[in-house]
Amino acid sequence: MKLKINRFNVDNDLTNSVEQATKLFFNGGVFIYPTDTIYAFGGNPFNQNVMRRISEIKRNDKWKRYIQLVGGIEILKKYVDINYEQHLDFLLKIWPNPVSVILKLNDNTKKIYKSSTMAFRIPNNTFCLKLLKKIQMPLISTSVNLHHQEPLTNYEEIIEQFGLEVDAIFYSEKKSFFVSSTVIDLSEGKPNLVREGKIKFEKILKSFEESYG
Question: Which CATH architecture describes the domain 7-211?
Fold first, then answer.
């Protein structure tokens, strides 16, 4: 007998998809969903079992600091220390967009994550933003792949490989999930490029310089 895989088309049933993802988030579930870049494993970053389970699914035995999606600057400020008004202006200018920014965590969040920094992003994606508005918390975003392998970008391949390892798959039939986010480090003041993705670093630097103009 073929096992049933929970799958939801976010294009055809956005409201129900958001509701189902919200339930999974608060009940300690792990799910796959489309972002403004590539598909991602998602869940509650403050649930240790969720973090461990994602690492196991990815066959990655090293504890990893996954990118966190947030729904707005006010949510972000609960978890990080932003010491410069210009940094806020800069973030407001570049988000929502596929740019992930490494920031210094505040003292409380440092203890939870056992880390001093973390990468955050406000995504330019309707499903993500509606889900983030519902949960009012950060959401894990890490590529759908096995450790040391390329990310999967086709939802049918994702369903075939990971459908039985997660609690649900939220997918879109739009063909746009191919390029990872650009990652910059803003924890030391000036942006430093970690990984160039959808948005060119040159364009990001220009926005930063304008924020200080």
Answer: Alpha-Beta Complex (3.90)
